[in-house]
């Protein structure tokens, strides 16, 4: 679904950026989307 794509997109953006601060922001967003995803699956 779209949340899965969102997690993937943020994780990929984090992997591709050279800025550690941006990477951390992307990973934070990916984690929040992943938490929303797991909450939906309960």
Largest β-sheet summary: none
**Individual helix count:** 2
Distance between the termini: 16 Å
Number of structurally distinct domains: 1
Please state roughly what percent of the residues sit in beta strands, choosing from under 5%, 5-15%, 15-25%, 25-35%, 35-45% or over 45%: under 5%
User: What's the average pLDDT?
Assistant: 95
Overall geometry: elongated
Number of strands: 0
| Rg, Cα atoms, Å | 11 Å
Spans of at least 5 consecutive residues whose pLDDT stays below 50 are none
Order of helices and strands: HH
Any overview of this molecule?
The chain has one domain. It is 88% helix and 0% strand. The protein is elongated and about 35 Å long. It is mainly alpha-helical and 42 residues long. It has helices at 2-16, 20-41.
Supply the key terms.
42 residues, mainly alpha, 2 helices, 0% strand, elongated
Task: Set down the secondary structure blueprint.
Blueprint: H1 2-16, H2 20-41
What would a concise description of this structure say?
The chain has 42 residues and is mainly α. 88% of the residues lie in helices and 0% in strands.
């Amino acid at each position: 679904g779209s949340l899965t794509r969102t997690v993937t997109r943020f994780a990929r953006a984090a992997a591709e950026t050279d800025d550690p601060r941006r990477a951390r922001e992307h990973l934070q967003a990916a984690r929040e989307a992943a938490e929303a995803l797991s909450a939906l699956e309960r």
